[in-house]
Design a protein that fits this description.
Structural class: mainly beta
Low-confidence stretches: 156-192
Oligomer: single chain
Order of helices and strands: EEEEEEEEEEEEHEE
Strand content: over 45%
Number of helices: 1
Distance between the termini: 9 Å
Helix content: under 10%
Number of strands: 14
Radius of gyration: 17 Å
Mean pLDDT: 75
Length: 192
């Protein structure tokens, strides 16, 4: 549990994208947003965040070679000109974009990434912070998009570990019967 009345706490969100298709996917691109006010989702809808967070450090990736870009905007688009690879002040960044160095992702390959952000001091009860990320990719010459949401919320003056557990879900699409085609898992952990 997080004590919401004293000091800043650090939340760590780890996520993985796995290609569960039988063939390659191409041009995987991930757009993510850390919890902040004024944030929009991939459908340009405003998200009601009442928790405003700050990145602690650069986002780390593993599994596949990739580059991470950052934007101080919580409503930027894929092609926005605010993306930078090495921001001067990481704590001012609200969005991130992950691009693979190789445009193909083979069956079974996994891209993992970890995001660390400060939760504000003196959180009040009943506050929400949504972290969003969207995976864009091509499969069989079709453009695809998958949205993922992690909700961190305060209850009774704490952020409940149980609440985080229930929000950690494997999200999948189903095609051709019950085949898993793309999956991801995100966990909230290491809250100091």
């Amino acid at each position: 549990n997080i004590n919401t009345r004293t000091g800043k706490n650090i939340a760590t969100v780890s996520a993985s994208i796995v290609n569960n298709y039988k063939d390659d996917i191409n041009n995987l691109l991930i757009i993510g947003r850390i919890p902040s006010k004024g944030m929009i989702n991939s459908d340009d809808e405003l998200i009601n965040n009442t928790i405003n967070t700050e990145l602690v450090k650069a986002i780390s990736t593993s599994g596949l070679l990739s580059k991470v870009y950052y934007s101080p905007l919580s409503d930027c688009s894929i092609d926005d000109n605010s993306w930078v690879e090495n921001p001067e002040n990481i704590s001012e960044m609200k969005s991130f974009k992950i691009e693979l160095d190789d445009s193909n992702m083979s069956h079974g390959e996994k891209l993992s990434f970890e995001t660390n952000f400060f939760l504000p001091e003196s959180l009040r009860l009943n506050q929400n912070g949504y972290m969003l990320y969207t995976a864009y990719y091509n499969y069989n010459n079709e453009q695809c998009k998958e949205d993922f949401v992690i909700n961190i919320r305060t209850e009774q003056g704490t952020i409940s570990e149980q609440d985080c557990q229930t929000k950690d879900e494997i999200v999948v699409n189903k095609a051709n019967g019950n085949k898993i085609v793309l999956g991801t898992r995100a966990t909230v952990s290491g809250i100091d």
